[in-house]
Write a structure and sequence with these properties.
homodimer, alpha/beta, Rossmann fold, eight-stranded mixed sheet, 7 helices, 12 strands
Amino acid sequence: DIVEAALAVVTPKDLLGRRIVVTAGGTREPLDPVRYIGNRSSGKQGLAIAVGAAARGATVTLVGANLEVHAAASDDLHVVHVSTTLELEAAVTAAAAEADVVVMAAAVADYRPESVAPAKIKKDVQGDTLQLTLVKNPDILAGLAGARRDGQVIVGFAAETVDDREQLLALGRAKIARKGADYLVLNRVGWTEGFATESNSIIVVNSAGDIVSEASGTKTSVAARILDLLT
Amino acid sequence: DIVEAALAVVTPKDLLGRRIVVTAGGTREPLDPVRYIGNRSSGKQGLAIAVGAAARGATVTLVGANLEVHAAASDDLHVVHVSTTLELEAAVTAAAAEADVVVMAAAVADYRPESVAPAKIKKDVQGDTLQLTLVKNPDILAGLAGARRDGQVIVGFAAETVDDREQLLALGRAKIARKGADYLVLNRVGWTEGFATESNSIIVVNSAGDIVSEASGTKTSVAARILDLLT
């Protein structure tokens, strides 16, 4: 329509020709056919990055984990749906082989149940308590960074529940050093912040731990600031 | 608009004056501020019952647990949002005190973590495995049935992962006897069935274990068949 056409004219195509993979949403690890361990992530921030990148000329693959919001796929925006962390790892690893940039915005479950019950766990059989053993999932961000192609840019996300900016930065600097990513987007989350909201507030650090960007606002405007780092 | 007005004319007001509480969605039990144990329920079936009941003249309170779909509240449809099983129990118990019918369509977590971590559990601190102890949640359906007002009708739901109709009926008959509800709506669910889909297939048994209704189709048409039992 007219608004879209006008926006298309004014949006600079400064990511033209770049192949960008974006993960979004939160992975779910099944306990049985009806229960799972999930992450509180609507996928809105990752989706805004994917849509924003496509609007700026990039060819985008969006790997979406249980998205609560949906992207309209187009020639410039391919969508791959996944649910578990292992499925997300397989999809993003495959897509990364042909990508210039990988943005890991999805909230990935660090642990999954050691075993998945084939039928619904019945509480009358289980008794008053249930012991669950969880095992560690692969570290997808570190894996992508370790397998990085020449010139490929790897962007990670860290959602931390800390009280202040200095604690957030300290956690972020330790994390990017450990993971080997090029940029890490930090945001503070709590019981009510960051997830499933329309706005966000972030700090981006580079591999040296320096702050290279800060942004607050709608998830669309925050996405634009993150994408500015890739131009 | 015209379609709504026409539908309003042809929909019989056969639930006029009835006060109906409907729970919908799936409860989430937090492990920490970002992780939870969830149930695969979109809330669509419960929502269809709530909307259908209001259209047929009932005054409806919808207790929605993490609904992926949303109802437009109106004079005849009040919406209360909850997340955990304990929150759902408090909301449905309060609403039931003034209700003629309670329909427990929500998928309720049988267990919750014994303790909730105040900050995000860090995998570099935890190591390769994580042991979780879950404790049993209250049995809301049995509680409602036990506290039933004179003439109040209690409708439960049972989503079972069994292979055939006879197994489903046997589980359902044992469950309604145990819970003390008036009707139990049974449906078979699996990795791909029943949840988050647009259609559903159900069998309803009464407190004697007799089949009183069977329906397959859209969640709206299945809702209508369940509501027929209340007229």
